[in-house]
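Practice problem: predict the structure.
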Amino acid sequence: MTDELETIEVADEHAARRLDQFVALHLPLGFSRSQAQTMIADGHVTLNGTVETTGKRKLKSGDSVAWAVPDPKPAEPKGQDIALDILHEDEDLIVINKPAGLVVHPGAGNEDGTLVNALIHHCGDSLSGIGGVKRPGIVHRLDKDTSGVMVAAKNDVAHQHLSAQFADHGRTGALRRTYLALCWGTPERLKSTIDTHLGRSSGDRRKQAVVSPGQPDARHAVTHFEIIRIFDEADNGVALSLFACTLETGRTHQIRVHMAHIGHPLIGDDIYGAGFKTKANKLPAKAQSEIKTLHRQALHAHFLAFEHPKSGEVLEFETAPPADMQAVLDALASPTTP
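Answer:
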């Protein structure tokens, strides 16, 4: 168990809510309801000072719920024969086109079947260990349901060099990252910068939100965007736009939060764009069908450039949106270029 005990009093708005729902709502970002249920069943949660192992238990206003998140399992991840779409590989690094649905590294609820497991199988003993026992080779990450270009280090020297580039976010070096994001609506400005602070949402602790710089966990976040294609409302029943987003910082869910913040959440984003789901009913039938098939946010890491840690050469990699996202784009009528 971790030493930090979390204790929360049940407010009126959560009265009659199930214990597992309440705990899942307040767990750190990335934890699921099933993980909350496991914590409860394993005796890690107390209700009014007594261990409660029934997740279905209904809460009352004023109840005190407490838990300590169990420490992650210390076991090292094992190699697994998972197919990789390799864009480049040498003795120092490997660049892949990550598919949507692949988790980057093991964690709570995802102990195997990750990109790390695939890299260990493919790279063997050469994989860098500086990222920690559960994240060997990983210098940056993409959300599970975000596809696109990633680089991993194969030795510690490369890991240190690449990590420094990502920490610098391209301010002084060659690093550049551009994502394609299909979003609801079209902003007034076709090219702009979103400059905010991101931190834990006060309404849902599993989410990130734009917050005051004074919030304890606030972190500066900057996203530059440009509209590269517009799908007109007259042709589609509702306007949509394809954004090219370039990151100046790399915060959790940064593009998803920023796009929602300016009123243009990503298509398929059930966390940050849930209020826009009914807009899909106005789209052509083919587009509606493809969005239902997408099952994820329409976000693709399209372009990555960085300096090779040994040769100093600037390497650039670019991939088109995968079939599921491209199918949505193809189903939309009459795209125009601004």
